[in-house]
Structure formats: C-alpha cells, structure tokens
Design a protein that fits this description.
Length: about 350
C-alpha cells in the first residue's frame, strides 16, 4: 500500500530560504516602479535541451511568462552539450541581456560562465535545477533530494507489501551524468536504500534523461539480472524506456500480479502519465515546469523592480499513481503534460 505521507505534495507551497536577494540597479533598468512591460527587461535563457518534454515545458513557461510580463526573451538550446551551453551563456553576455536564466546540462561545467555573467553585472537565475555557485541570484526548483527520497520510499513500500519486509532487488537508472538534479535525486534515493540493508541495488546505469538510452541500458540489465523487483528512474522519460525494455524482454506483468516490476520516475511527462493510466507504470513524481518557468519570469521582474526574492524558491511536486490520477487532488495540482506535446 502506498504510503500516505508520500501521497501528499512535496512542499505544498513555494517556500524560500531565510535569506532573500534584492535587485541592484545595474540590470538594464532603474529598479523602480512601473509595470513589468515598461521596464525594458531582456532575459536570456540558456536551456539544456528541448527534445525532452520536461525541458520543452520550461521553454513554454518562459515564453508564457515573457508574454504576460512584457519582457523580451532570448533563448538558446545546448542540445545536452555542456560546452555548447557555456558558449551560449557567453553569447548572451555579449548580447547585453539584463538577466540570464540557466537550466544546466552540467552544474560544474557551467560555473565559469556564471562567473563571466557576474563580472559583466548580469544576475543569473538557476531554473529547475541548482548550480554550485554562490553567484547565483536565486534558484527556482524542485527539491531533488526529497524527490529521490520519495521514490525510494515508494519502492520500499512496494517491497514490504510483496515480501512482508523491506527486501528485494532494485535497479537504479540515474539521470544524465553531471546534472545537479540527477546527482541530488540519486542521493535521496540511495539514502533510503542505505537505510534498508536487505534491499539490494543490483545494477546502476546512466539513463541520460533519455527514453532510448534507458531502454538500451535496461535491456542489458534485464539480460544480466534474472530477479528484479523494482526500478528507480531518474526522470519520467527514463521510466518510459525502462517499461518498454521490460515489455520487450517478456518480463512485463500487470500491477498487482506476481512477477510485476515496480517502475517509478520523476517529472511527469506525457508518455509516463499515459503509462500510469494504462497500468504499465506504477508511479511518477510530477513537477510543473510550465508554471515554474512562468513564475521565474515574474520573480525576475520583481527583482528588477527592487523587490526581494528568496534565494531558493522550492517548487511543489506530487506523487501520481493509478490510484489517484483522476482524483480531485491531482486535478487541483495539475498535469502539465497535458499542455505539452510529446
């Protein structure tokens, strides 16, 4: 039985760190009064990719936020390449944008570009992920460690239902190497696994935030591991690839039947949500990338106008399962995947 606590949202409201930040006047405006559209703000966005539905959702949200507030938005797409992302940020600096929002491909690799932006007097915002630098003006993101913990707790609950105790074989399909979100989700997941010594992580692989890659690595794992109880997927795209591999290997059993392999992912893209509705996937910890990015634009405008913005704005998440997917609670939270193709 799914744990009652895990059915609640992670952070029901966006909460901030104790220390906030306030805009300086160097960002291309005087930081005083006026409507957002009057500020003449240009935001540069350095995106990790748009090929993944979640990241496409971030871009959609930024575009909606820009239209709502009247700011100018310049976007770039690194296509998952950390070196390209550094170049993208450097180009945005050269273009003289007022603010730069970054969803990092690699947290450490992007830090020199953050330093360059700071040296140019351009505030940097981390979006949907963290960047390990004290030069970040503010971050809007899910708590990725908590999301990993929630996934781990759901797996433990499944194993307890299956065996009467926390034991079994689990596979860990990690997010893209270098991504702070992948590192943090993995950290939270492994904290839960480490607390249950009879739960064995029998295989670990990098799923690259990608359905095809996850399908490939999970296919290899299924060939090598005859007994698997559950799979933690670093994101929803990976969970979809994992489920396809399980089915292709002839090892799919419906939820609740003997031999079923429990699959959980994070983010809530449409293919994962469809798999939950179809009874193929067990759970998805959903975010709201569109609303998150829209709010990030609003917060940048507030910062520009001299208002205080918290250093870390935690965005809520919700566990979605076949049991609650049509509930009023989930409807109120919203399924962002219904607003993005793919």
């Amino acid at each position: 039985m799914l744990r009652k606590l895990a059915q609640a949202t992670l952070a029901l409201t966006a909460v901030g760190a104790l220390v906030g930040v306030t805009a300086c006047s160097s960002g291309g405006g005087n930081g005083e009064g006026g409507g957002a559209g009057d500020a003449g703000i240009t935001i540069g966005y350095s995106g990790y990719t748009v090929s993944n539905p979640f990241f496409a959702g971030l871009l959609e949200g930024l575009e909606r936020g820009a239209e709502e507030t009247g700011v100018t938005l310049i976007t770039t797409n690194a296509n998952g390449d950390p070196n390209q992302q550094v170049t993208d940020v450097e180009n945005l600096i050269t273009q003289g944008v007022d603010y730069i929002a970054i969803n990092p491909a690699d947290g450490k690799a992007i830090v020199p570009a953050v330093r360059a932006a700071d040296a140019a007097g351009i505030p940097v915002i981390a979006l949907a992920d963290s960047i390990p630098s004290d030069l970040i003006t503010f971050t809007v993101s899910q708590n990725h460690v908590d999301a990993g913990k929630m996934a781990g707790e759901e797996i433990v609950s499944f194993l307890e239902d299956r065996y009467g105790e926390a034991k079994g074989n689990v596979v860990n399909i990690q997010g893209a190497a270098g991504s702070p979100a992948a590192i943090d989700r993995d950290k939270g997941f492994l904290e839960v696994m480490d607390a249950h010594p009879d739960v064995q992580v029998v295989a670990t692989a990098d799923g690259g935030w990608d359905t095809a890659i996850s399908n490939e690595v999970m296919t290899d794992i299924l060939q090598a591991q005859p007994e698997i109880d559950a799979v933690f997927s670093g994101n929803g795209a990976e969970a979809v690839g994992v489920s396809r591999a399980i089915e292709s290997a002839g090892r799919f059993a419906p939820i609740g039947e003997d031999g079923h392999i429990f699959v959980i992912g994070i983010d809530g893209p449409k293919p994962a949500i469809e798999n939950i509705r179809a009874g193929i996937q067990d759970a998805e910890i959903s975010q709201q990338p569109i609303a998150m990015a829209e709010e990030a634009v609003r917060l940048i405008v507030k910062l520009h106008n001299g208002e205080t913005v918290e250093g870390f704005v935690e965005w809520p998440s919700m566990l979605i399962t076949p049991a609650n997917i049509d509930s009023d609670e989930v409807k109120e939270f919203g399924i962002w995947a219904d607003e993005v193709d793919g």
